[in-house]
Design brief:
The protein has helices at about 25-45, 55-70, 70-90, 100-150, 155-170, 210-275, 280-310, 325-335, 360-375, 405-410, 430-440, and strands spanning about 175, 185-195, 195-205, 320-325, 345, 355, 380-390, 390-395, 445-450, 455-460. With about 475 residues, it is an alpha+beta fold. The protein starts with about 25 loop residues before the first helix and ends in a 7-residue tail after the last strand.
């Protein structure tokens, strides 16, 4: 399934904890402010509780400083907090002395707990950052998988994939190429490989090599999978093409084998009979005429096969020139072997010239006339040429059995023989008509009712300026 760039939501990393700590000066100021606030808070609390039990208030500041600025500053904050607690709240106050032993124990316990809490808070912070980093990397890997594996064309997906890597790591630029590229002054080249096979290169700013190395394992796996998928897709397409080619070849052989075999059989039989010394002159002339007729039939079939192959290969480019439709129709009737008495040709007066390949149109109309004469019996074939709606319309009408509605949509397909009507033909003529008419910018359609004959209408474009 094809996916556009709008199908993918841009990857924006969500960060609950800063990846970089604030400046140390800010940490010192924050510690001083917190210790001051906690020390002042203990004065009113000292009236309702023993001062020794209030030391836990200082742990709040120690934990906050440890989470944001690390364990070192947290331990320093705990020492300053202990000194402030001793000076302002442990008797005798106003001095750094402790009168009672239990206060020494309380102060020592506070320092140990504060140091432990500071270390634990710092460790928790690091684990949280690592978890967030792993989550962002997992999200990025999933996003890259959707981009690289979901796109039908891998080279076109490289730019969106690089953009998502740049967004995830906040990079100023990022490029992903399938070639081997080296480092330069501004970019660091991260090679991507699958074993000994080079897959491509990730180009990131020189200062962001660590980011490139972080995404490298996932990117290598995805690129290897995408390249393998492309290889398998190409193999499937080639296999289907070969199978389709074999089916077409089989269909062609089945369709033309009878038409080729019939004239060849007749020619061989006539040739063997001509070699007999016992036949008379009249029989000899009849057999010779049969050889000539079947040879001409075989030649026409071969010509049609060649014309159809040229049309399907796109090698039938028209050589356009000014030509008269009336002259083309008369040449087509002669080429199709339609006697003048069997052709009822009606052409409007002052019919303009058209710009087309006269030879191709002659072959198209010859096939139409040959087809119409085959099914008209003793009745003449009617041909009418006129201008209507800015187009040249040529209508060829026969008096045959007509074409069933179910067969009209397929009547122009190669080797298709609709009902009893197509049984005598090769199934190539109307396909050639459609190919040559459309090559000259025209259209052909069929109008028919069962038992009422068939009418083939060819519409050719008229140029704006027509010579006299």
């Amino acid at each position: 399934m094809r996916q556009s760039r709008e199908d993918y939501a841009p990857l924006v990393p969500h960060r609950r904890l800063p990846t970089r700590r604030p400046p140390l000066s800010a940490g010192l100021l924050a510690a001083a402010v917190l210790i001051t606030i906690e020390t002042l808070t203990l004065f009113p609390l000292g009236e309702v509780a023993a001062p020794v039990s209030l030391a836990v208030v200082y742990l709040l500041g120690v934990l906050l400083v440890s989470i944001v600025w690390g364990a070192a500053l947290g331990i320093a904050t705990s020492l300053v907090s202990a000194a402030a607690f001793n000076f302002f709240h442990i008797p005798p106050t106003g001095r750094f002395t402790i009168a009672e032993a239990e206060n020494w124990v309380a102060l020592a316990v506070f320092l140990v707990v504060a140091a432990a809490a500071s270390s634990l808070a710092d460790a928790a912070r690091h684990r949280a950052q690592e978890a967030e980093q792993r989550g962002r990397e997992a999200d990025l890997a999933a996003e890259l998988a959707r981009v690289l594996l979901g796109a039908p064309d891998l080279p076109a997906a490289l730019a969106p994939a690089a953009q998502r890597i740049a967004q995830a790591f906040g990079l100023a630029s990022c490029r992903l190429v399938l070639d081997a590229v080296g480092d330069d002054e501004r970019s660091a080249a991260i090679p991507l490989a699958d074993g000994d096979r080079r897959l491509g290169t990730l180009l990131v700013p020189s200062t962001a090599r660590d980011a490139g190395e972080a995404v490298r394992p996932a990117l290598q796996t995805l690129l290897a999978a995408a390249l393998e998928r492309e290889r398998l897709t190409r193999e499937v397409v080639e296999t289907r093409a070969l199978r389709r080619s074999d089916e077409i070849k089989t269909a062609v052989l089945r369709a033309v084998s009878h038409d080729l075999r019939s004239p060849l059989t007749a020619i061989v039989a006539s040739a063997e009979a001509l070699a007999s010394p016992s036949i008379g002159d009249a029989d000899r002339r009849e057999l010779a005429a049969g050889v000539t007729s079947e040879s001409a039939r075989l030649a026409r079939l071969v010509d049609k096969l060649i014309e159809l192959s040229r049309l399907q290969a796109g090698a039938a480019e028209p050589r356009r020139d000014w030509c008269s439709v009336e002259e083309v129709l008369r040449e087509a009737a002669t080429s199709a072997g339609v006697a003048p008495e069997r052709l009822k040709l009606t052409v409007d007066r002052d019919l303009p010239l058209i710009l087309a390949d006269a030879a191709q149109l002659e072959r198209a109309f010859a096939n139409l006339l040959e087809n119409a004469a085959r099914y008209s019996g003793d009745q003449p074939v009617s041909v009418r040429a006129r201008v209507s709606g800015g187009r040249m319309l040529v209508r060829v009408v026969d008096r045959g059995p007509g074409i069933a509605p179910a067969d009209q949509e397929r009547i122009f397909e190669p080797f298709f023989r609709g009902g009893d009507r197509g049984a005598a033909g090769s199934g190539l003529g109307l396909a050639i008509v459609k190919g040559f008419v459309e090559a000259n910018g025209g259209q052909v359609r069929v109008e028919s009712l069962p038992g009422q004959g068939a009418s083939f209408v060819v519409a050719l474009p008229l140029p704006e300026a027509v010579p006299a």
